[in-house]
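# nightly structure sweep
# worker-07 picked up a monomer target from the shared queue
# config: single-sequence mode, recycle default, output format = structure tokens
# input follows
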Amino acid sequence: MFFLVADSFRNPSEWCRLAYWELAQRVGPLYPVEAPAVNVFGDVPYCDGLSLETLSQQNCNAPESVRHGRCKIGLGVTLSHEGGSVWVYNRSDNPIFVNSLTLDSADSPLPTRVPAEQCLCVYDPKKAAHRTCGWDFTTPFGPVDPNSIRISFAKGWGPCYKRQEITSCPCWLEILLAPCR
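# output follows
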């Protein structure tokens, strides 16, 4: 697997940058986030935030699975930075699947299913500090970026799913946390 490295933060007030992916292709530029919360939505505008519909227009030749996946995003998610922790609120009508350092076990970085209209703390700085001590960031599933949270819309991945890697999921979001939390 390959993921972006969040080491080039120029604005100290940014707590993360967002990368939108369709399968193994990043679509559009990185989206910097300074506000404590940000909405990421499909084709239904929900206040301010990142419109994936706007970004997806840059991928005109997307396969049918991606076009179908886009329809399932709807109101998407709200990401909230609260006291160093990161929470995801699933506003979609479909589940999302989340993978991060503080959700995974060291030997099995599987995604956690978050049902529609539910929330989950997807990054806990205390757990992250404990996990990074002596942790090998290379797993049987590929490298793990401790500063990255991955969210797939409506489709899971891993040994229990048809898709083994997140890069096989039609529509997914990568949250690149700022190095200084």
